[in-house]
Amino acid sequence: MKVTLAMKPAGKWFIPIEAESIVPKNFLAGTDLSVWRGNRELRLDDVFSVSVEGDADRAEDVEVVLSGETFRLKRVGEYMDGGRITIFGGIGMHCGNFMSGGTIEVHGNADGWLGREMAGGAIICRGDAADYCASGYRGGRKGMTGGTVEVFGRVGDFLAENLAGGTVTVHGDAGDMPGAEMRGGTLVVHGDCSRPGANMKGGSCYVYGTAQAMLPTFRKIGTVRHEGRTLIRFAGDIANRGKGNLFVKGYEYLD
Amino acid sequence: MTELLVKNACVIDPLRGINAEMMDIAIRDGKIVEEVSDAAEVIDARGMLTMPGGVDSHTHICGTKVNFGRYMSPEDMRAGRTPRRGPLHATSGYSVPTTYGNSYRYSVMGYTTLLEGAMAPLEARHTHEEFIYTPLQDTMANTLFDGNWAIMEAIRDGDIKRVAAIIAWTLRAVKGFAVKLTNPGGTEAWQWGKNVSCIRDPVPYFEVTPAEIIRSIVEANELLGLPHSVHLHANNLGTPGNYTCTLGSLGLIPDLNEKRQTLYATHVQFHAYGGSGWKDFCSKSEPIARFVSMRPQIVMDMGQVMFGRTTTMTADGPMEFNLYRLHHEKWSNHDVELETGSGIIPVIYRRKNLVNSIMWAIGLELALLTKSPWQCLLTTDNPNGAPFVKYPEIVALLMSKKYRDAEFATIHPDTEARVPLPAIEREMDWYEIAVMTRAGQAKALGLQDLGKGHLAPGADADVAIYPLHIDEVDPSAEYQKVIDAFSRTEYTIKRGRVVARRGECLVDGSNATFWVRPKVSENYDMGKDPDFIEKFDRYYTVRMRNYPVQEEYLNRNRCIETEARI
Rounded to an integer, what distance in angstroms lies between the CA atom of residue B453 and that of residue B440? Predict the structure, then answer.
């Protein structure tokens, strides 16, 4: 089953639309769903041109395709457990929150909190992602616990904060404090970043570029070979028991 | 004139010795009366269990410390969200909910009076402001005197009357209700980066010991004739082997008051640990319960731990630092100038953790091994042991050996060798539960003459009607029914008005705050004492004239004047 949702032009409205109902399994029962714009409840077809091809019995067989001004949509794919969402355009905040299965592919940029606290499944972002990509929630103990997030562009600050499981891969640069408070899982940054792994207590963080403003609370152990690269291995954060592994290609301390 | 008649109520009212009698309760203008006119509104209780409104004699619900718990745990606010509805405000939070969340959830459980366990005098305004927004319960605040510089100096000089005078001035200034000692001396030592190991360690600079502080303040409390006794959180909370220190502290207390106890020892579960370290950690509830049973001058509360997530918060700063070193999670530490300190960390109590399992057992043992329910009251030191919404489960655990055994089977298997709980057969009855949740608490707080904790004519019309017929339910087998009934009253009546019905709050109330004003002679008015004023102005960051909390900060103002003997 393929559900195509083409957003109608909003005119002067730039209020975000809370679209947590856009999850593949919800379309098994039809397209009579609602979304919220501010405090107004809107029907799905008030906002989108909806078309459905074929039918399905289970969420895994549902593909949702979004297009138009999709950057105004928040919370798409929240609690998703199977199926596929493809977004032709940017996507707003909190896409793929808590998802446990299925795939979300964004052919554009993602706003903050992409894949927050996800437990399984996969998110692929072909553009850039903003702050708190694959992170936890404010104050929470555990962030992402499973699944994969792959971003082909750059990401903002606090990438994979509180990461507890799963794999996060970024092909561009990351901002400040990727892998802060990490306690498990794997984080790979192909580009540069600053202050990786702050206060980490588990898991592995790889930086294939240069770690700027490297934290002094990591103990250098030596060099290792990893997937064809020579990386420098650190243990830390020794301010917090020091059981995490940080691998960097190059690093610079602050003067 | 508003009148209400509750008919066919099965009343348990321990302060009047009433045990399960069918009677009618007449209410006029917020007070219990002998009879009402035919025009009164009628509620038919249909034989359901009816008790005075619940009283929580030790809970942390309002003030800077609680609010900082909210501030540092945004994740806690994800739980317990309810939207705004009718007269009700939106609520959120689980272990440290919003003030309305606290108030509504307590009300649904039938609680109508709450005592905030620790208010730092300097930060009293915050507590009173939050009291205003706790609309469905009458409130009062314990005021912290554990590290008060002026008091420690007076104790060093051996001047008990001056100690009493400073307490009198401070309680009046901050609109406090009772005297609280949290780790006496330890909170001041913590400002020097130290702690006191037990009651014989001197406090740095002041050179007084916790034992001297406890004894002097207990005597001063009785000189002032305060309604409540000294409220003690003993030294050494949460360390293995601390029960000897607890027994030492309790042994200091003479019997000075005929009407009530001379010392209220709070959350004793945290003070009843044996062993020399975490490896041989075990329960020492038996010696504590035996000791307390022999001394009518002491009342304690359980401080029961229940499994799940919660937030620990106390004025005991050094203890929270030790806890932080165990958990390595977020931690807050706070210093209150010349008075006290505080600390907060969120914790999760786990069944699979041996220490947590033993803690869970100790609280229950204290309640079950203390002969008189008047001497061991039901609390969790909310939210330190568990959020207060767990009270119904604790009631059921105390009433049912079967439920205790079922729970015991799910905790750490090594617990059995470390605690006496499996051997305890006692099952409490409805009357004892009524004592432990309202009558005993009102008596211990000295509130019975102020119309709390009983249903005699003249008392405040605070009534809780639980959807349960005690002759039809066997609490030792049908414990789930007990939990359900105590979680959700059929009616909660506050000051003669139905405020909650079947789990729904109905009104936005208006509470009263109780505070004390001891009358002391001119010579002992600290507001005119040159030495006190000089030191106040030299060391505090606030001016003395700005320190007192104005009466505008109180909602309904219930000032209790006492005749002091100084």
Answer: 8
Our CA-based measurement puts residue B94 at a distance from the nearest CA of chain A, in whole angstroms, of: 14
Domain-wise residue ranges, chain A = 1-108, 118-255
CB contact under 8 A, A139 and B329: no
Burial of B434 (0-12, 13-18, 19+ CB in 10 A): buried
Query: Which chain A residue lies closest to B325 (C-alpha atoms)?
Result: A240
B residues 317-336 lying closer than 8 A (beta carbon) to A: 328-330
- B123 vs chain A: nearest CA distance in angstroms? 25
- What superfamily in CATH does domain B3-52+456-505 come from? Urease, subunit C, domain 1 (2.30.40.10)
Is B76 in CB contact (< 8 Å) with chain A? yes
> Residue A35: its pLDDT value, please?
95
Q: Which overall architecture, per CATH, does domain B54-449 show?
A: Alpha-Beta Barrel (3.20)
CB B210 within 8 Å of CB B187: no
Smallest CA–CA separation between B92 and chain A, in Å?
A: 15
A132 touches A112 (CB < 8 A): yes
Helix (H, G, I), strand (E, B) or coil at A208: strand
Q: What percent of chain B has pLDDT over 70?
A: 100
Would you list the DSSP string of B347-362?
Answer: EEE-TT-HHHHHHHHH
Yes or no, beta carbons of A137 and B74 under 8 Å apart:
yes
Of the pLDDT bands very low, low, confident and very high (cuts 50, 70, 90), residue A210 is very high
Query: Alpha carbon of A68 to those of A62, A76, B431, B531: distances in Å?
Result: 20, 14, 68, 76
- Distance, in Å, from the CA atom of B302 to the CA atom of B296, rounded to the nearest integer, reads 17
Minimum distance, in Å, between the CA of residue A145 and any CA atom of chain B: 16
pTM of the model: 0.91
What average pLDDT does chain B have?
Answer: 94
- The residue with tokens 């049973």 is B293
Give pLDDT, residue B408. Answer: 96
**pLDDT above 80: residue A12:** no
Say which amino acid occupies B281: F
Give percent of chain A with pLDDT exceeding 70.
Answer: 100
- Interchain contact, A240 vs B328, CB within 8 Å: yes
Q: Which residues of B touch A137 (CB under 8 A)?
A: 74-75, 78
Structure tokens at B385: 């042991």
Is B311 in the A-facing interface, judged by CB distances under 8 Å? no
Say yes or no to pLDDT of A141 above 90. no
Rounded CA separation B318/B190 (Å)? 6
Partner residue facing B74 (CB), from A138, A201, A240: A138
Backbone angles phi, psi at B29, to 5 degrees: 50, 45
Which residue in A139, A201, A240 is closest to B73 by CB distance?
A139
Domain ranges within chain B, ordered by starting residue: 3-52+456-505, 54-449
Beta bridge partners of B4: B27, B41
What is the share, in percent, of chain B residues with pLDDT greater than 90?
A: 91
Q: Which ipTM was obtained for this model?
A: 0.80
Q: What is the mean pLDDT of residues B219-234?
A: 95
The closest of B467, B507, B512, B510 to B491, measured between CA atoms, is B467
Closest CA to B463 of B41, B111, B134: B111
- For chain A, the residues whose C-beta falls within 8 A of a C-beta of chain B are 137-141, 201, 240-241
Nearest to A241 among B72, B76, B328 (CB): B328
CA distances from B486 to B109, B175, B308, B437, B509 (A): 6, 32, 20, 11, 22
pLDDT in tens, B22-72: 999 999 999 999 999 999 999 999 999 999 999 999 999 999 999 999 999
Confidence of residue B556 (pLDDT cuts 50, 70, 90): confident
Per the CB < 8 A criterion, the answer to whether A224 and A204 are in contact is: no
Question: In this complex, do B329 and A241 lie within 8 Å of one another by their Cβ atoms?
Answer: no
